[in-house]
Amino acid sequence: MVELRTAVDVARAVASGELSAAAVVEENLAAIDAREGEVHAFNVVTAERARERAAQIDADIKAGRNVGRLAGVTVALKDNMCTRGVETTCSSRILAGWKPPYDGTVVRRLADAGAVMVGKTNLDEFAMGSSTENSAFGPTRNPLDTSRVPGGSSGGSAAAVAAGFATVSFGSDTGGSIRQPAALCGLVGVKPTYGMVSRQGLIAFGSSLDQIGPFTSTVADAALLMEVIAGHDPLDSTSLPQPAPELMSVLSHGVEGMRIGRITDMPEGSSPDVLERLDAAFDVLRNAGATVVDVQMPSMSYGLTAYYLVAPAEASSNLARFDGVRYGLRVDAKDLNAMYGDTRAAGFGDEVKRRIMLGTYALSAGYYDAYYGKALKVRRLIADDFAKAYESCDVILTPTSPTVAFKFGDKTNNPLAMYLCDVFTIPTNLAGHAAMSVPFGTGEAGLPVGVQVLAPALGEAPMFRVAAELERAA
Fold first, then answer.
1. What pLDDT does residue 24 have?
2. Closest Cα to residue 142, out of 217, 40, 65, 219?
3. Is residue 380 part of a domain?
4. Mean of all residue pLDDT scores within the chain
5. Is the separation of the CB atoms in 229 and 215 below 8 Å?
6. What average pLDDT does the segment 210-217 reach?
7. What is the model's pLDDT at position 2?
8. How far apart are CA 311 and CA 33, in angstroms?
9. 66 in a domain, yes or no?
10. Is 177 a catalytic residue?
11. CATH number, position 119
12. Exposed/middle/buried for 328, CB within 10 Å: 0-12, 13-18, 19+?
């Protein structure tokens, strides 16, 4: 595995003049030149833009100006985050060539903090998938074993950090799309509390589920990035009216006296190597002074079913805007309705079409109450089960993914098997809570295993304390 620079170290070294931002950029671009053809983490590499930005940062530092907490830290952004003047496609033909006229809030906050974007990363089309095999521009490969998937939908972002193409990266998490690829690529991945990070400028998949979060090589890097990007944004109506949490300061607090939840009725199907690492994580926390508490989540096994009604329903609404009229692909036809149909048939891939049709069906007259309405009731039950569990524990530990990274093609012909990859991550999105994946040893074929730390809404501080303890032990 490539030796990764940390964001904390890069920012300190660049700000002090020990290292130039230009040198960091050139190091990453050299890594991209060496392996991008093999990995395909990016849809576009913004090399010249990155060099210009790095030169400006170095000039500002020499002039004594403050360049921010992420001075010279290179970042790769999932290609569903709007970047002014840079192609933003969601890895879909329907948006090929589209360049937004504005930066999303997270993109702007990163730039204001001194980060340097090196490119936009590949994803499952419109963030719909668990392997990054559904991209219109070809799959991304896991840098640790290129015969295997990097996870999804943010597989390009995970691969970019794991391969040393960028110091850190960002993805979006609708049902596990940050945490699952983080686990499969041996990284830290954070899904914040819903509303803690602005969604302004994120092209929507499921508006009540989506959250932006970081991929990093260390827990401290993830804490730093969360402090930079979180906090209220008046441009996002779902943004929580509070400042970013203080997380760097809690990393050394340990877990003495904390209560760690172990789900006794957890969904089955995890491989033995993953469960072995989960047991080892409980042992580590117990030895560090925490108490392991058994909790029950009876509705957790229904999370997958509810999610695949709620998320496609929201997607069918959100993706209706891609009609060939205002932006993106347009296929000429004899009349307006034919143009709509032909454009969407040519522009959307099979998985996106599958979810749009499922969502439209679930919302249609005569079926709304039977499907979508019932899924919302299950969503409420999941939130209630979490609330009851958190009465007796501070955080909950589960596997992030049921298995280590699987081979290309293993699940592409069986959508249900692919959906089961997210069985442990989806409930958190339905509840709107915080969760993160922490690498904790290896399993089959020496591939990384991720342990998922779940916390209640606004429970990022205890979540990061546990994550830091696991990282120290690992």
1. 98
2. 40
3. no
4. 97
5. no
6. 98
7. 62
8. 37
9. yes
10. yes
11. 3.90.1300.10
12. buried
Q: What digits encode the pLDDT tens for the residues 357-389?
A: 999 999 999 999 999 999 999 999 999 999 999
Is residue 153 annotated as a catalytic residue, yes or no? Answer: yes
Asked whether the predicted pLDDT for residue 1 surpasses 60, the reply is no
For 37-84, write each residue's pLDDT tens digit.
999 999 999 999 999 999 999 999 999 999 999 999 999 999 999 999
How many domains would you assign to the chain?
1
User: Annotated catalytic residue: which of 91, 153, 172, 401?
Assistant: 153
Task: Assess if residue 323 is contained within a domain.
Answer: no
Nearest-angstrom CA–CA distance, 44 and 156: 11
Supply the pTM of this predicted model.
0.97
Distance CA 183, CA 149 (A): 12
Per-residue pLDDT, 416 = 83
CA nearest 214: which of 75, 41, 68, 21?
75
Q: What SS3 state is found at 120?
A: strand
Catalytic residue among 91, 92, 177, 401: 177
CA dihedral 325→331→337→341, nearest 10 degrees, is -110
Judge whether 331 and 342 are in contact, CB under 8 Å.
yes
In this predicted structure, what is the pLDDT of residue 412?
85
128-to-135, 174, 352, 422, 457 alpha-carbon distances in Å: 9, 9, 7, 12, 25
| pLDDT, average across residues 283-289 | 98
- Specify if 57 maps to a domain: yes
Enumerate residues 6+ apart whose C-beta is below 8 A from 329. Answer: 93, 94, 95, 96, 343, 346, 347
Q: Which domain holds residue 198?
A: 7-250
Q: Residue 259 and residue 82: Cα distance in Å, rounded?
A: 40
Residue type, 336: L
Residue 132 DSSP SS3: coil
pLDDT at 28 over 90: yes
> What does the alpha-carbon distance between residue 10 and residue 19 come to, in Å, rounded to a whole number?
8
pLDDT band at 453 (very low <50, low <70, confident <90, very high): very high
| CA dist., res. 351 & res. 139, Å (int) | 14
- Between CA 468 and CA 429 the distance in angstroms is 23
Place 326 in a pLDDT band, splitting at 50, 70 and 90.
Answer: confident
Distances (CA, A) of 401 to 61, 201, 451: 42, 28, 8
H helix runs in 40-188, sequence order: 47-62, 105-112, 155-162, 179-185
Region 207-217 average pLDDT: 98
Alpha-carbon separation of residue 355 from 56, 201, 318 (angstroms) = 44, 22, 12
Question: Within 10 Å of residue 99's Cβ, how many Cβ atoms?
Answer: 14
φ/ψ of 106, rounded to 5, equals -65, -40
> Would you call 78 a catalytic residue per the annotation?
yes
